Each structure stands twice: as structure tokens, then as C-alpha cells.
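ping. complex inputs:
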Amino acid sequence: MSMIKVTVIDREGEAHELDAPTDMGMNMMELCKSAELPVEGTCGGMAMCASCHMYVKSDHDLPEKSDDEEDMLDEAFNVTGESRLGCQIHLADDLDGLTVQLASVG
Amino acid sequence: MIQTDILIIGAGPCGLFTVFEAGLLKLRCHLIDALPQAGGQCSEIYPKKPIYDIPAYPSILAGELVDRLMEQAEPFKPGFTLGERAETIEKDDEDQFILTTNRGTKHRAPIIAIAGGLGCFEPRKPPIENLANFEDKGVEYIIKDPEFYRDKKVVISGGGDSALDWTIFLADGVASEVTLVHRREGFRGHLDSVQKVMDLAGEGKIKLLTNAEVVGVDGGDSLERLTVNHSQQGEMTLETDHWVPLFGLSPKLGPIADWNLNISKNAVEVDTFDYSTNVPGIYAIGDINTYPGKLKLILCGFHEATLMVQSAFKRIYPDKNLVLKYTTVNGVSGF
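pong. complex structure:
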């Protein structure tokens, strides 16, 4: 199994370093849920809600946002240039060292 | 007062299938849902998405699944209270529950089945500290009656169809001034609505602020002004009578959190023998419940509904024996 390290900063500012498998088709929303971090993932990962809004703090080169993701970010608050939906960040080997911060709950 | 055998809270797939399984046991059902239509998340969030794990359907659209469940439930003539939120419960002297909605509709039943999914869908509220002070004093999350805004200054936030449609409607001689604030240049609404809004802005009939976000509310007894943060121009102030933030809906557990049920991580704890809660007569099925090994799947909710109605029957008719009858042998005879 291939593993990468990912850091998630929760809403209290505490950093959680997580081991993330890259061969299980997982995304950041699911990773946070499996680590029992407070991410809702209401729609299950279809980019149809904005409950997994997070900020990418490291300078990893992520794939461009799809129109669906961009549209759903309209329902989030405090959206910045670093904003992504966690469900649209698919865990892959080149994301080793990724750092994200959970956005406040809207 | 609406009387039934099983009062189902939540008209999603699980609640709808409960009507069918209860009907086979000659139990009547009535469904309550905060949304104006049946189907729960399947109708509200992803009606056009295919689902691949419904047995015997290699693929079915969520909206179509709801249509078919409605068809399957139809012979058992379920009642519906839609667009109302189940608010309070009490017991009467005949050991029946009296459930009252937020609009005061009363329902009476010996059994309550909570099939509430993720909870009730409520408008998503911007995280502004003193926002609650101005709710219904200039800040409204839903436009109920556009006449309310006649000759008023209105600011609308959001980038979807409801924000665009209301901007167009209120700009047409209703409000005295309409401003639409949106976080980026693009809108996700229908193309013709987007064009209409652009045209209105071009003609000076509305004020369009893109790349901007409302970050503060201020006023005396009622709302007087908003602070808007614009990505290039920085902070600015907008004088207004009303602000309508339209950021879609998000589910909240809602009033059932106060019904003395054992709750763990926003879900109702149940006994997997019959999906009963800690309150006798109240069951919880589908995404709203939790137990060791719980999976939030429609498939599992159907199973839970089927076992739950057996237990409900025995509670209503403790002296009657229940024999499992196969629909293949007996068919389905409705009410």
C-alpha cells in the first residue's frame, strides 16, 4: 500500500498529521472523516454541497477546479484563492506533505 | 388533528419505503418533511445523479428512485405534511404521541419513525457574529412575499438561480434599489438569467458587485448598513433596508435533538433488533440512526424500515400474532 503524509489543521488551529493511502481512491473529505475530524461531507463527495470546504496551505500543484466545484464554493463562506472542496482533492503520491486547513462551518 | 398508525418524520427513500412495508401489515402512515417535496436528499441535492447500489437496478437516477418509491407506496395512501418541520412531541392519556410542526399542524400516532436523513434542510447562514440580532429585522434567508420589499433598498447575496431570479424580480419595479453581491465574476444560474442580470447592471437598473462578500451587518433596531469586502477595492459600506443571503440549504439535526433521545455524533442511537430508540414507541431508521457497523446506504435503510414495522405492529397490537406473508403469494392489497 502506498502512503503519503498529509497535515490537516482543524478549526481550533491544531495540526493533525495523517497517513493517507493513495491506492484506495480516497479524497481529502473522506480522509478527514475517517480520522474523525469534523468534516460533514453531506453529499457524500459529489461536489454538491460545500461542507468539506478547506484551504490548501502548502504549494502543491492541484488539478484545476471543475465548474461543479467552483459553483458549489458559491455556497461556502470566507472563500479565498486557497479554497477547495476536500472531496475534489484526490489523494495521489504527488500530494505527499499536503497541508490543508478546515474552513469554518457555514 | 391528523391520526395515523406510524408517523414518519422525513419523506426520503427510507420513509417512503416504510409506507410500503407498513402497508403490508395494514398499518397506515403519514409523512412529515421540512422540504416542500418528497424524496429528501435524492430530490433536493442530487435528483439527476445515478445510484448504482440499489438491488436489481444497475443504475437509477435519484429522482427516478423517488418516483418509483412513491408509486410503490401509493396503494397504501400515505398522508403528507410537507414544508413543515416536526417541532415538538408529547404523549396524551391514551399513550399516543402528539406531534406538532413549526406551523402548528398536529398529528397523533402510537408510533413515530424518524427517517430524517441528515436532518432538516435549513438556509445556510453566513458566519457573521451579530447576524442573529438582525434576523427578521432586515435580514431574511428566504423571500416569502416580494411585496414585503416594495420601495425598499435590498441587497441580495449569492450566485445561484434563486439569487439571480429574485434580483431580476425585485428590480422590476418592486424594490427601490437592488444590489447583487457575489464572490466571483461567474454565476452558476441559468444562462438567460445570468444574461438578464448583466443587462440590468449594464442599464444601471441594479448594482452588481462581483468579487465581493458581505462581511458585516450594522444598524439600530433594524438593519441599516452592510460592510462589503471587495477583492480589489477593499472594504465598503452599503446602506440598505434588507439583506437576503441566498447560499442554499444545509441539513441540521433540528428539534429532534431535544426529544430526549440518545444522540451520538448527530445521529440517533438505536437497537439493531428493531431500530428502536431509548424512547419506547420512537424508532429511527436510515441515515439519521447509528449503531455498531452502521453504513449510511439507502439499501440498509430499506432493511431497517422492514424490521422496524414488525416491531411497531407488535407494539400497536400486542395480542396479535404476525406471520410473514410473501407479496408473491398474496399480492399487494392497498387501502
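Chain B touches chain A at residues 41, 45-46, 49, 118, 124-127, 158-160, 182-184, 186, 188, 213, 247-248, 250-251 (CB under 8 Å).
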